[in-house]
Prior knowledge:
The chain is of the alpha+beta class. The protein has helices at 2-37, 56-66, 75-79, 137-140, 181-189, 209-220, 241-249, 269-279, 285-291, 306-314, 334-346; strands spanning 49-50, 53-54, 83-85, 95-98, 107-113, 116-121, 125-130, 141-146. Strands 3-8-4-5-6-7 form a six-stranded antiparallel sheet. Strands 1-2 form a two-stranded antiparallel ribbon.
Amino acid sequence: MLRKFIPMIVFALLFTTVIQTHTAEASTRDNVVSYAKEQLGVPYRFGGTTPSGFDCSGFIRYVMNQVGVSMPRTASEQYNTGRAIAKSDLKKGDLVFFETYKPGPSHSGIYVGDGKFIHASSSNGITISSVNDPYYWGSRYLGAKRVIKDETVEVAVKKAEPARVLGEGEYRDVLPTHWAFNEIKVLSKGNMITGYGDGLFAPNDKVTRAQIAALITRATSLPTSDGTTGYSDVPANHWSASSIAAMERAGYFSYIEGGSFNMNQPVTREEIAVLFAKAFDLVNAETLSASSASTFTDVDQSNWAYEEIHALQASGIVQGFDDGTYRPSGHVTRAEFSKILHTTLHH
């Protein structure tokens, strides 16, 4: 009788082992993605290997270390580890490599599924991008490596720490150490600005003209009606049309020439100065007088937004960068907008 059940017992044990192996692999991959996403919003830092700042290979090394996978330091060294895999076979936790400014692997990230990877961008810090991005990453894709073994239950996985409990107005990708954490939290609690769902705020995303119209209209309680505008590219039923129309009627967009609004165009720092100066009536005798002492080295009186930029500086709303510049043609991120709006409302 016992002999009859031995094959069944052996099969059950083997089946259980297969399930445990698959579960361990899946758990490790999920943990890699979880640890990686905890660092969203951390700034880029050349040579950085800690949550105070990462470069691309330092980020990978840090995340993989959390699940007991040892990695070399540089992207080229990391490219020589693991097993090469096709793009079509990518799994969560696989490493993806790109050829950017020189031949060979010069940038890397961690695949998180759905055609996306998380990486340390020199312009946006830890962020998520598309592997097939037609504007940049797609054409620079070099290859992928698998460093998480498919068939092992011996990977040393650290116990995942409990996810941060988010308070009202808080987001997973805006850590309490973020330079705009308090401003984003206050504005979110007051419904002045909102996130993208799933606990994300995307602080490094650029603010578009459509978004700025809705945000300023909301912040100033500007009356809105229908979405009829004088712009040929703003449908009346677009979600931002009534806000664009309200700001157009108020004269806030008078600097836009031609019949197109370009809703998805990122807002520049000189635009933000003009819009805030108009919406909050910041250009006056006091600020014009004080602006004569302004010290932005890249903004002179020939700049079309000169008075507005220096009105914001004189009001203490903007201070510029450490090198004494304002960078008027630079784009405004959601974190920067939050900082400027909060300072304007509370200065």
